[in-house]
Amino acid sequence: MKRVAIGLLCAVGGYIVVALVGYFLVDWFSSNVHDRSVEAAMTSVFVFGSFGAVVGFVVGFVLGGRPAASASSKS
Questions:
Q1: What angle do CA 43, 44, 47 make, to 5 degrees?
Q2: What CA–CA distance (Å, rounded) separates 39 from 69?
Q3: Measuring CA to CA, which residue among 11, 12, 15, 1 is closest to residue 48?
Q4: 56/6 Cα distance (integer angstroms)
Q5: Fewer CB atoms near the end CB (10 Å): N or C, the chain?
Q6: Phi, psi torsion values for 30, nearest 5 degrees
Q7: What is the pTM of this model?
Q8: Are 39 and 30 in contact (CB under 8 A)?
């Protein structure tokens, strides 16, 4: 249960970070002149943000289940 919760928190964080970065990348590099801001918003929310959420969940799920390394276990 802990791994899923950490995965969901990382998914939310990944969504926000990647959507913001994706917005600015599309806004800067798009050749669309009529509705560049709409293209940037829709692409960042539905494409980049979703991709960031999936990657964030997988990373959080994998890393959330690792036991903490303690100094007493090293011999």
A1: 65
A2: 45
A3: 15
A4: 10
A5: C
A6: -75, 140
A7: 0.80
A8: yes
Which amino acid makes up residue 53? A
The pLDDT of residue 62 is: 93
Cβ(7)–Cβ(60) below 8 Å: yes
Closest CA to 57 of 46, 69, 67, 49: 49
Angle at which helices 49-64 and 2-29 cross, to 10°: 150
Averaged pLDDT, 30-52: 92
Domain boundaries along the sequence of the chain: 2-67
List Cβ<8 Å contacts ≥24 apart for 53-57: 53/11, 53/12, 53/14, 53/15, 53/18, 54/11, 54/14, 55/14, 55/18, 56/7, 56/10, 56/11, 56/12, 56/13, 56/14, 56/15, 56/18, 57/7, 57/8, 57/10, 57/11, 57/14
